[in-house]
Amino acid sequence: RATATMGEAPEPSPQAPLAVLSKVELRVSCKHLLDRDTLNKSDPCVLLLMQSQGQWMEVDRSEVIKSNLNPVFAKIFTVDYYFEEVQKLRFEVYDSHGHAGVGTHDDDFLGGMECTVGQIVAQKRVTKPLFLKYGKFAGKSTITVISEEISGNNGYVELTFRAKKLDDKDLFSKSDPFLEIYRIDDDRSEQLVYRTEVVKNNLSPIWEPFKVSLNSLCSCEEKRKLRVRKGDGDPHPCPGGTCTLASPRPRMGGDGGGAGCSLGGSLWKIHRVYSFLDYIMGGCQIHFTVAIDFTASNGDPRNSCSLHYINPYQPNEYLKALVAVGEICQDYDSDKKFSALGFGARIPPKYEVSHDFAINFNPDNDECEGIQGVVESYQSCLPKIQLYGPTNVAPIISKVARVAADEERTKEASQYFILLILTDGVVTDMADTREAIVRASYLPMSIIIVGVGNADFTDMQILDGDDGILRSPKGEPVLRDIVQFVPFREFKNASPTALAKCVLAEVPKQVVEYYSYKAFPPRCPQPETPDSNLSSPQ
Fold first, then answer.
1. Nearest-10 Cα torsion for 147, 152, 158, 163
2. What phi and psi values does residue 283 have, to the nearest 5 degrees?
3. DSSP letter string over 441-462?
4. What would the pLDDT profile of 200-210 be if each residue is shown by its tens digit?
5. How far is Cα 213 from Cα 265, in angstroms, rounded to an integer?
6. How far is 17 from 19, CA to CA, in rounded Å?
7. How far is C-alpha 161 from the chain's CA centre?
8. What secondary structure does DSSP assign to 198-263, as a single string?
9. Over the stretch 232-252, which tens digit does the pLDDT of each residue have?
10. H or E stretch at 61
């Protein structure tokens, strides 16, 4: 129940920080399920499992739908969503026989599908085949999962009201009118949302502009009916007129045969406050670029003490950081192609020092197929280059910024860029790097810097604006805090997922801040596209 006292309204906070946690609703349906029953069709039920510490744990289950091979389940699964985690889900469909619990040996397994929460929200609607054990197709069976964010705040409305030629209710003076706005709920009950101030002794009043959250005013539904009533202390108040945000011009009915009044001067301005998932579900892609430090301070890659040493049994810190962050970002890039760059090395054929070369040595296309493609390009390039120096990262930041600037000119929330820089020491070109970061803060990009090895990274903290505002050498501040720096050694004894959670936790807020600053709304959701990277359950 939303209420407001006279002259008051819930104060919106469009600049409030994005909550770390979002909740997502998942709706499930199936088609062409296998028919396991002899006398009638299967009675399907869906179990939702989530992986926790390597174990599959049941989260919830749907109702059983009798004798149906194409069920649409009424059960809505609710899951917590974290951008910075790989949240693995498994949907299992069973033919329930009713006399035992679903999932026991008495039930027939009709198929399963594995994916991540990130994959579902990035595509919004996912349709995939069901698999039996050992990766065998369950005939032509498919499962469809549709996602929707549970949003508690989608913006606010700024309203201005004026009236003309009100009926005069007072005997010795003119009326003292005020307005009340009610939300009409689904059960037709009316909830008071806002009451204006009283305008004394005036038959053509103009009330002060005010703000009301969309959630309070209309449950974020612009077509929900509202009732606007005029009051002036009369024991027989005006019944009021109805309107919606789509047609905001109610006419007040008069009482006792009066002429009534028109709110002809009413103005409504909707201010949307979008969430990270609004942009992702609207089709915004996240393009991931990794930049790797190949300076001589890393040590000879052929030596087991080198930070670039390739141990067949244990990935080095560069690979651990690359895979941990890349595995998160890949769910939000439909083509699964990632730019992989190197800096600080002498490269063939002339062995001149380069600070922004493609590690696949293709100057026309620096993208690799999937995270595994980046790993393979990294491993294959090491024997071909000479580690050198210095540690200059400004060229790569500027290179990604140029691509982001091209994207900005589309004036759409279609692509956001994340640059992961892996380095073993403090950057040499600190002034140029600060300048490049300030320029990049105006573009759709974020920068993550992971310090590899045991160097003293104290001077790198200046790039991370957590302790103060980063400024260019000329004193210009960043528009947004877009840099996150962490030393890898702080996570050496933790799982790689802990590193990813730390460095990616701020990205959703940075995405929202940028598009809010540019006033770019989410795009319309894109049509579903097949994704062969969704794995079959084993």
1. 100
2. 105, 10
3. TTSSEEEEEEE-SS---GGGGG
4. 888 888 889 88
5. 21
6. 6
7. 36
8. --TT-SS-BPPPEEEEHHHHHTT-TTS-EEEEEESS-SS----EEEBTTB---EEPPSTT---EE-
9. 755 445 556 788 877 755 555
10. strand 55-61
